[in-house]
């Protein structure tokens, strides 16, 4: 069973050295400043104490990562494991609107009220988002991407892949991002967000 660590491994320090000319398999684009990557403190283990609810709150308020830092890529054989980070977008209400227009809504199973009357069906957000993602991948033959809907700090999220899953070809990730930008009415690129359950550094 994984054990969430008290030790300060790793701790925030100076901005991490990055070579912008060397691509990372998890970085569709590399955002650096003078060759150094700045990572919010909330992404690291607390110093000299166990995690607390305040740490989750701080992480939720921290900005997502534009680039996956090398130390957040799991290393085979290492007993210290980084948090799970998802690459993708928050969904927003636009996904439901798109699903309704394209007949991709997945309803919650019909329930009865106290009088035995059937309640009006409501869309199941998680299944609807996944249906939209799977439809886009099938339509554009994005066979290397296995999209999922994950809870990102208690909010549903469109996840292309994680730092623990194989990285798809760059052109496939870019094509899915291009389609979602239109659906979500966004101009920004996908970023890295912490998982809702495995957001802590841990020791196995």
UniProtKB/TrEMBL annotation:
Residues 1-26 are annotated as: Disordered. This is Uncharacterized protein.
């Amino acid at each position: 069973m994984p054990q969430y660590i008290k030790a300060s491994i790793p701790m925030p320090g100076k901005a991490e050295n990055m070579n912008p000319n060397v691509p990372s398999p998890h970085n569709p684009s590399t955002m650096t400043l003078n060759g150094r990557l700045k990572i919010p403190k909330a992404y690291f283990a607390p110093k000299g104490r166990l995690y607390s609810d305040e740490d989750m709150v701080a992480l939720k308020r921290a900005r997502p990562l534009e680039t996956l830092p090398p130390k957040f890529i799991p290393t085979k054989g290492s007993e210290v494991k980084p948090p799970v980070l998802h690459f993708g977008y928050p969904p927003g209400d636009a996904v439901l609107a798109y699903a309704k227009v394209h007949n991709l809504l997945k309803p919650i199973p019909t329930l009865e009220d106290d009088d035995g009357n059937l309640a009006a069906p409501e869309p199941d957000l998680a299944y609807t988002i996944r249906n939209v993602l799977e439809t886009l991948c099938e339509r554009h033959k994005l066979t290397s991407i296995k999209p999922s809907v994950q809870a990102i700090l208690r909010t549903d999220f469109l996840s292309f892949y994680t730092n623990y899953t194989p990285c798809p070809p760059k052109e496939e990730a870019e094509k899915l991002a291009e389609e979602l930008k239109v659906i979500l009415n966004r101009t920004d690129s996908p970023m890295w967000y912490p998982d809702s359950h495995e957001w802590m550094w841990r020791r196995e």
